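thread: overnight batch results

M.L. [08:02]
morning all. the overnight job finished for the chain we discussed friday. pasting input first so we're all looking at the same thing
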Amino acid sequence: MVTATPDRLSARERLLDAADELFYEEGVNTVGIDRVIERAGVAKATLYNAFGSKEELVRAYLARRHQRRSERITVALRRYSDPRQRLLGVFDVLGESFLEPGYHGCAFANASVEARPGSAVVGVADEYRAWVRSLFVDLGAAAGARDPERLAGQLVLLYDGAGMGARMDRDPGAAAAARAIAEVLLDAAIDGPASASGVGSSAVTPSH
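M.L. [08:03]
and the structure it wrote out:
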């Protein structure tokens, strides 16, 4: 039986691997098609046959990142049997990603800044963010939050802010700080709407 090796990756996979490295490290607008095909070791026609355009390649790169991140979080949360710890565990998984070599922030935020409004890139980034929010809604409901939607909105801000802090301040500890705040918000969300409202307004302030 012949086993698969890196040399036998499909041209599409090689292009996605090259795009993942280059787009994430340097930005989707900075990196041209010629550099991607050179890194992948394929002809330019192969790229257009596989994806049709650079925008579609960027979309596919982000879609694969979404798939891998959602799978990673889903698997990692199986460590926890308690619903409360499962919700807080999202920030543990986030912190693990901050410690990886070459962390450059959120790939979806980075690509969205450079994308045209309404483009396919914005669409796949929106899908990822909707998934993160729905994850927090489900986890918050399982943990006993009275208003899971409100709690999820607060936690998404924390999630985003932790990523920004880890990137701009070069502080992988941002995830632990966000987790501590998430714990306070979760307690308030379980105790009651009035308490949750007070904590949410003081503990989480959106920043740009």
